[in-house]
Amino acid sequence: MIREEPAFKIVNANLPLLVLHVNTTDMDKLKSQLGARLVQMPDFFSDTPMALGLAAIASSDVTPDFADLVLFMRAHGIRTAGVLGGSLAQREAAGLAGLGLFPDAPARPAAHPSGASDLSAESHSQRQTELPGFEEAGSEPSAVKTSRPSTAKTLRADNLWEAPILRPTMVIDKPVRAGQRIYAEGANLVVLAVVNSGAELIADGDIHIYAPLRGRVIAGACGNEGARIFAQQMNAELISIAGCFRIFEDGIPENVRGKSAQVRLEGSRLIFQPFRNQ
Asked: What average pLDDT does the segment 208-227 reach?
């Protein structure tokens, strides 16, 4: 007897998902500040799935106009996937607007002081609104963050569990041009050529750039707080690890500018360290 192949299977995809924490019930204020931030990073969130974090307004009696907010975000290239937290009324309204209802995510632990060289608050733009998934590093920890990816298993249609697939390191040996986006899903990323301004590197693991870095780099995209970024010449526009990010509108600070350096995450702070042999 020939066994019929199942027409579908359900998997834990561990997809990278950004969270926009909504800290106000004033939607005009939210859209104004969000629009101002998006102008600074045109096309950065193009077609990016994003959830709305409602923990900060869950105690409010106000239910946002989710349909209007979704249209606003879509006009800026953001695909709103659902909501995290919120009151029962807010979650019901979000469901009626066609949004998914994600379970609450765990809180981020408080940052610990470090003696390592780090960047001052003046080195990045003033916070307009929280964008975890992209949470501004060095800021006060948020009440809600994106949940860490499940480490283990895939559910197949025949109800058998299987281990996740670990992908080999992705190696790029050609220059990464402005507008290009490279994503090493479930893997580390190694780049052997220049990363130009406006280019974007994303990896679920570590990122190594053995050439000048002038674009945007996002490591630990699925929440891996142990991920690191290594660059031969550090001149990035944006650095992010596990959702904590910094934007460098006026260039990287002098202690790591144009130098070989690594970046790691400590609590909610990005720590920048030049290599010692310089």
From this structure: 91
Put simply, whether the predicted model's pTM sits higher than 0.70 gets the answer: no
- Nearest partner of 137 among 114, 120, 117, judged by Cα: 120
**Residue whose C-alpha is closest to residue 180's, from 209, 200, 203:** 200
Of 81, 104, 127, the residue at which a domain comes to its end is 104
**DSSP assignment letter at 150:** P
* Number of folded domains that form the chain: 2
Instruction: Report whether 82 contacts 102 (CB < 8 A).
Output: yes
Residue 54 belongs to domain with CATH number: 3.30.70.260
Specify if 168 maps to a domain.
yes
Contacts 24+ apart (CB under 8 A), 195-204: 197/237, 198/237, 200/44, 201/176, 202/16, 203/170, 203/227, 204/14, 204/16
* Residue-wise pLDDT tens digits, 158-174: 333 343 456 899 999 99
C-alpha–C-alpha distance, residues 209 and 103, integer Å = 36
pLDDT tens for 169-210 read 999 999 999 888 899 988 999 999 999 998 999 998 999 999
Q: Residue 272: which of 188, 196, 213 has the closest Cα?
A: 213
Rg (CA), the chain: 20
Please say which residue of 84, 104, 124 terminates a domain.
104
Do residues 209 and 172 touch, judged by C-beta distance below 8 A? no
**Sheet with strand 18-21: strands edge to edge:** 18-21, 48-53, 78-84, 100-102
